[in-house]
Amino acid sequence: MFITTETTNLSVKARFFRGFSDPSRLKILESLRAGELTVGAIVEKTGLSQSNVSNHLSCLRDCGLVAAEQRGKFVAYTLSDPRVSELLTLAETLLADVARGVYECTRYSVEERSDE
Q: CA neighbours within 13 Å on the CB side: how many for 115?
């Protein structure tokens, strides 16, 4: 099998969207839409555990969706680019039109995780 640029691009796009596919990561991204937050503030806004938030923030930073800046003894997290928020808004508007199909789709399963 030959690996083409198209195959590589599709693979990278799929990895990009995985950052948005986990409910915990999505909660964190949604909470950051209002502006910068510390881990403690994200925990408070999302109801996720501190270790869960920290692990997902690490993933989101590695993927380039979240940026971090040291502020004294705390780290402030923000969305890395305004287009991340725009993409979330676009997803909301698209979902408003296709929600029934997504909800009824048997090929997608949303598993609730016990660590939320």
A: 12
